Amino acid sequence: MLHPSYTDLMRVVNSEVEPGEQPVVNSRYSIVLATAKRARQLIGGVDPMVNSSSTKPLSIAVEEMYQSKVKILNDDETKQA
């Protein structure tokens, strides 16, 4: 079982969205894609942004997302960056 849960992760990721704005993530699929992408970055040699007891890249990626260390960008923000 995943800890924190998908709903907890979605709440944290969408916490900075103003009322009336489109949420950053709308589904579990978005969370899975974002954590998988971050895990691949960690496997590629990027340093983790959190101190974790786990050595597994996916677990570290989930923890980073839960602690708001990683920001998910939408397509428009990605093009600007």
Keyphrases for this structure?
single chain, 81 residues, mainly alpha, Eukaryotic RPB6 RNA polymerase subunit, 4 helices, globular
Rg from alpha-carbon coordinates: 13 Å
* Spatial shape: globular
Number of domains: 1
CATH architecture, by name, is Alpha-Beta Complex
- How would you spell out the order of helices and strands? HHHH
Description:
- The chain is mainly alpha-helical and 81 residues long.
- It has a single domain (6-80), classed as Alpha-Beta Complex (Eukaryotic RPB6 RNA polymerase subunit).
- The chain contains 4 helices and no strands.
- α2 crosses α3.
- The longest helix has 16 residues, at 28-43.
- The chain is globular.
Map the helices and strands.
Layout: H1 6-13, H2 28-43, H3 57-66, H4 75-80
Brief description of this entry?
With 81 residues, the chain is mostly helical. The protein has helices spanning 6-13, 28-43, 57-66, 75-80. Helix 2 (28-43) crosses helix 3.
